[in-house]
Amino acid sequence: MNARTPHSTALRLALAVGSALLLTACGVVDAAEGGGDSTRSPAKGDDLTVGLLLPDKETTRFEKFDYPLIKARVATLTHGRGKVRYANAGASAKRQSSQFDQMISARVDAVLVDAVDAKAIEPAVRKAKAAGIPVIAYDRLAQGPIDAYISHDNELVGEVQGRAIVEALGDKAESSKIVMLNGSPADPNTARFKQGALGVLQNKVAIAKSYDVEEWLPKIAEADMKQAIAAIGVHNIAAVYSANDGMAGAAIDALKKAGATKIPPVTGQDADLPAVRRIVSGEQYMTVYKSFLEEANSAADMAVAKIQGQDIMFDALTQDTVDSPTEKDIPSMLVPVVALTQYNIKETVIKDGVYTVKDICTAAYAARCAAIGLE
């Protein structure tokens, strides 16, 4: 993973917008305004369609945040004329490939795809390329000739989770046994999360059991956690590395059913509402908050810029590069991440408008919210 600039994502976006506005004012960007040679390739105007393929409904962010945010952003960028054609694969790689084929047949102008299986989606990506339809990998890096990739620094996600465990265990870390619940082996992000976490955890804790959870399914994670508890003993598990919040909830349920009197530190990712509530109650130690707003809006910006031939804007949005197993130096944007704990809920998900205090602090959590100053 290579970065082409040391600037933060926020600064890059500010510079991109500023540059685009300046160039437009000078008559450089919009050939339709009489600017002569331009950086716009022949392309569509606002009457466009972006295909959006999301992987599952188990991860609540996809249906609740990503889709509506992208839909709204495309509408804003196109003066209400642009549309999003949406499909959710329900964790089925086969279904997602069929949905992708339908997008190609419908002649959408670009596709944003969050692949269930990065390798399985490659034939559809190649088919789209042959049809002249740009493909942007969203949140997970797909194989094949994609035009761009937007996600987070996924190794950093694992590092943040690993550091949280080490810090929570303190002086007891070296003698502590932990369980790792990694994501789906078909998801390319899983290897990056795991690599980042192991870079912190190895030689600092004892990894007693480690599982790759098929399709990220909580029910499989709970079954794996039950196996770990049977092998290690519920009171001998010092922490649980869970790659996302759905599996974190399943691990906590398994620990409770096994008679745990105190839940050990459990990590997560995605800042799902149930996870944020568990963090408030003290059942879940932390989650990794990835700004849905920034990722979704930037993905829509990239798609519309690509369709409309706004090459300067597109290049400014993709100043990082990553490699996939099939492609090198893919133009990319890597959005920052934050460790969310009891102590920064206001500064993260509430400040960004993801949730309100009322959403989090229902009657069951009111006392704990008051105790940590979340009122």
Structure notes:
This protein has helices at 9-25, 60-77, 93-105, 122-130, 154-169, 188-201, 218-232, 245-257, 273-281, 292-308, 311-317, 346-350, 357-360, 366-371, and strands spanning 2-3, 49-54, 83-88, 110-113, 135-138, 148-152, 177-182, 206-212, 237-242, 287-290, 320-322, 330-335, 337-340. By secondary structure, it is an alpha/beta fold. The chain has an 8-stranded mixed sheet, with helices on both faces. A 3-stranded parallel sheet has the order 8-7-9, with helices on both faces. Helix 2 (60-77) crosses helix 10, helix 5 (154-169) packs parallel to helix 6 and helix 10 (292-308) runs antiparallel to helix 11 (311-317). The protein is globular and about 60 Å long. Residues 1-41 have low confidence and may be disordered.
Quick one: biggest sheet? 8 strands, mixed
Shape: globular
Mean pLDDT: 90
Element-level helix/strand string: EHEHEHEHEEHEHEHEHHEHHEEEHHH
Rounded to an integer, what's the Rg over CA atoms?
22 Å
Low-confidence region ranges: 1-41
First-to-last CA distance:
41 Å
Annotation, overall tally of beta strands: 13
Helix tally equals 14
Strand order of the largest sheet: 1-11-12-6-5-4-2-3
Helix fraction, binned, reads 40-55%
Strand content: 15-25%
Could you say which structural class the secondary elements and strand pairing correspond to?
A: alpha/beta
Topology (SSEs and partners):
Elements: E1 2-3, H1 9-25, E2 49-54, H2 60-77, E3 83-88, H3 93-105, E4 110-113, H4 122-130, E5 135-138, E6 148-152, H5 154-169, E7 177-182, H6 188-201, E8 206-212, H7 218-232, E9 237-242, H8 245-257, H9 273-281, E10 287-290, H10 292-308, H11 311-317, E11 320-322, E12 330-335, E13 337-340, H12 346-350, H13 357-360, H14 366-371
Parallel strand pairs: 2-3, 2-4, 4-5, 5-6, 6-12, 7-8, 7-9
Antiparallel strand pairs: 1-11, 10-13, 11-12
